[in-house]
Amino acid sequence: DQIDLARLSSLRELLQTHGFQFKKQLGQNFLVDARVLERIVDAADLIPGDGVFEIGPGAGVVTQVLAQQATQVVAVEKDRALAPVLDTSLAGLNNVKVVYADVLDVNLNEVWNEFSNCARVSVVANLPYYVTTPILFHLLESGVPLHNVVVMVQKEVADRLVSGPGTKDYGALSVAVQYYAEVDKVLRVHPGAFIPPPNVESEVVRLRVRKQPAVIVPDQTLFFRVVRAGFAMRRKTLLNNLSHSFGFTKPDCEHLLLCTGIEPRRRGETLSLDEFARLTSAIYEKLH
Ligand code: SAM
To answer: Where along the chain is S-adenosyl-L-methionine bound (predicted)?
Structure first.
């Protein structure tokens, strides 16, 4: 039988037995709330035949439950000191493979070979907050087929991920992630749900990855460059930010915006994905 790690006393005992010390710099806040655990796994909407890629299994609290519901689980943990802990908590679960590495160094296309028996693959992760954005992009840009991505993130990041044009939290991160996925909030989580408690509020979000990106662009790298340029200085107009970033003269840039049907004095934060895509096409034409 598995140790019930969602019970605080069992988790503490397991960590103590192996002399484990939390490393703040690795974003180690382990979940000890059974209700939150249930909501995270439910959001992944797993069925037999599914594969799950977990980032940062920690002591294996979430991993145990994933292994019961999915066909194959691959978990990547950076901290090797957790190996004896995970060997104990995951003992007897023969559909889990733990890889000790920094997830940013992992070639996801290679890992996906482990999922050859799986109809679809989702990601579940209680993320280390210091690398949330690089990890999301590592996943989304890898091109591996993803079904749901259920992640616990800092509340402020969750707000940015779901925000639309014209709101204060809308920025380059919102546009870039919404290009790949439909995003919705699942659950707000208070610091007391973890040991040790983090200094920030958390939120679970779900990314339902699109089969095709939300908009069609002639060059994806250019699209992301246009988006970053659009938000470069939030208080400046598109005209200013774009002419500065791309080295266009003001009149040229004004002309380009007007031809795209975008008022040059608008700010980047008011542009929809579709408008950023049209702008990318216009800049692409101008550069080629
Ligand atoms: N999943 C566990 C839970 O819910 O209790 C632990 C979550 S804890 C917030 C984040 C985990 O990610 C830690 O175990 C940490 O060691 C691991 N981690 C931190 N940086 C990582 C990286 N770059 N690659 C892989 N794992 C990482």
So the answer is: 29, 31, 56, 77, 102, 126
